[in-house]
Design brief:
With about 500 residues, the chain is an alpha+beta fold. The protein has helices at about 1-10, 10-20, 40-50, 55-90, 95-100, 105-125, 135-140, 160-170, 200-220, 220-225, 230-235, 245-250, 265-270, 325-350, 350-395, 400-425, 430-445, 455-465, 480-490, 490-500; strands at about 25-30, 130, 180-195, 235, 250-255, 270-285, 300-310, 395, 470, 475-480. A 5-stranded antiparallel β-sheet has the order 2-3-6-7-8. A 3-stranded antiparallel β-sheet has the order 4-1-5. It comes from Linum tenue. This is Aminopeptidase.
Length: about 500
């Protein structure tokens, strides 16, 4: 059973790779553990219930789980209703018509916009989404995966007032530089693997390495090298045999790229598996810029899944059509000059030097052809990625995304409360710190999942429900299962269910 858990635990897998990486350097990304509990609620409840020996206690526990969910759902009902009502005014599809029906002033509309964003950001936080920072985005984009084209946002098509006003009134730490135009929320880490022969990519890699060698020989390397930022250099680390305290609280994900592949005939001609860490969920929020003909009020909320970090650009709003980079054009020009010099020199050189000049000229022409055909191939791959992101990786947008978020908040809160109560019930009194550790150990031992358990939120809900208390030593203790059900009481949902079954509520 433990072996199966280890096979599906990426942290365990990375630790195994760490032990093997005594001589080979590996490109890995160090990330903080997520607070989200990835286990499905029915599986969580039934697993915990089966750990309870007495059948009567098991039945009371299952009843408590239902009552906890019904109560937490009722707590959030009014807040979510306000969120959906506000969004109906700023829905890009039908919001404009509803705003006109309200006959609101400009100041009233702006107030409602800010209220909507406040509710939205609160729901994002409760659902354990985090705003992607500049450093995290630099980490993500410090490598390449399936998309090799520089993708840029057409900032002239994005509104800069809405989010600027919100962050001016609600300061956040480590906001990215583009936060006045759009916000990227991310949650969860996964791994994406692609296996193939990658013949064109390998040829591209070979030519690039030959070109890099020529640049080193001619001492032109500094002219063409693209310097990585300090943030990107800090983003990548090497796995070693030492286990520091810092590493134990972090999540390591390895990047496997063709650029780092060892050159051999076998590697070039056989199938190769490349690997890239992914953001499990990404939500992008933005508004399009107004024009002279139309004032934009719609707020776009788009939800994506399993986005490779290196291909994160595919979720950006209002993307420009990619083209050759300035560096590519400089390379073209310099290559043409070098080729021209080679041709002129060959005409005036002895016959023995002619073959050398022809070799240089062939290399230059080959590199120019490589740059052009690589661009065409990358453009086709980019178009396929965009199509895939629209049909396969985009989960929903607008109202559908908000409904999903609202339900997600409830599911996370319920799971946190149930796990915390179960630990106190089975293991007795605990301080907040001890409870945090015990909950994380339970998730790891019973489900093979590692996360940063949000104990503060769980304890707050338990105290609000009135089913835990603190003693003089700040240790938490729970009431008995039967008493907990009596404190919460019969919920409206239970009354409705019993009415449908023709049973009068007790």
């Amino acid at each position: 059973m433990e072996e199966k858990k280890e096979e599906h635990d990426p942290i365990v897998q990375m630790n195994k790779q760490k032990k093997l990486a005594t001589t080979t350097k590996k490109e890995v990304i160090r990330l903080e553990k997520e607070s989200v509990i990835p286990i499905l609620k029915p599986k969580l409840i039934m697993t915990l219930a089966n750990l309870i020996e007495q059948s009567n206690d098991r039945a009371e526990f299952l009843k408590l789980c239902k009552r906890v969910e019904y109560t937490i759902r009722a707590w959030y009902l009014l807040q979510f209703e306000d969120l959906m009502q506000l969004y109906s005014l700023f829905d890009p599809v039908s919001g404009e018509q509803k705003l006109k029906q309200q006959h609101l002033t400009l100041e009233e509309i702006q107030t409602l916009e800010q209220n909507f964003l406040s509710y939205l950001f609160q729901v994002m936080s409760k659902s354990n989404f985090k705003i992607a920072t500049d450093e995290e985005i630099d980490i993500a984009l410090s490598g390449q995966y399936l998309s090799n084209l520089p993708i840029k946002v057409d900032e002239s098509k994005l509104d800069k007032q809405l989010l600027s006003s919100y962050f001016a009134n609600h300061p956040h730490d480590n906001l990215p530089e583009f936060s006045n135009k759009y916000v990227i929320f991310r949650r969860g880490i996964g791994i994406d693997q692609t296996t193939g022969y990658f013949f064109m990519e390998k040829i591209d890699m070979l030519i690039a390495r030959i070109w890099a060698y020529l640049l080193r020989v001619t001492r032109l390397e500094k002219l063409f090298s693209r310097k990585s930022t300090k943030k990107q250099r800090r983003a990548l680390t090497e796995i070693d045999d030492t286990d520091s305290e810092e590493n134990k609280d972090n999540f390591f994900v390895e990047r496997i790229r063709l650029e780092n592949m060892e050159l051999s005939v076998k590697n070039l001609l056989s199938k190769t598996t490349i690997q890239e860490p992914t953001f499990d969920r990404i939500i992008v929020v933005y508004r399009r810029a107004s024009t002279k003909a139309k004032v934009e009020r719609g707020v776009y909320v788009k939800h994506f899944k399993n986005i490779p970090m290196a291909d994160m650009e595919i979720v950006l709003p209002e993307k420009r059509n990619p083209g050759l980079t300035p560096m590519d054009w400089v390379t073209f020009l310099v290559s043409a000059i070098v080729g021209l010099v080679a041709v002129v020199s060959s005409l005036e050189s002895p016959t023995d030097d002619l073959w050398v000049m022809l070799a240089v000229l062939s290399t230059v022409v080959g590199y120019c052809a490589k740059t052009y055909f690589t661009y065409q191939q990358n453009l086709a791959a980019y178009q396929n990625l965009i199509t895939q992101s629209m049909y396969d990786k985009q989960l929903d947008s607008g109202r559908g995304t908000l409904l999903h978020l609202c339900d997600d908040v409830i599911q996370q809160e319920v799971k946190e409360v149930i796990i915390s109560f179960f630990i106190l019930m089975e293991q007795g009194k605990a301080t907040r710190e001890d409870l945090d550790v015990r909950c994380e150990e339970l998730l790891n031992e019973e489900f093979g999942e590692s996360c940063n358990f949000d104990v503060d939120d769980a304890v707050e809900k338990l105290e609000k429900l009135g089913i835990v208390s603190r003693d003089s030593l700040s240790r938490y203790q729970c009431v008995g299962l039967k008493r907990a059900n009596e404190i919460i009481g019969t919920t409206t949902e239970e009354i409705v269910l019993k009415a449908k079954q023709g049973v009068s509520p007790q």
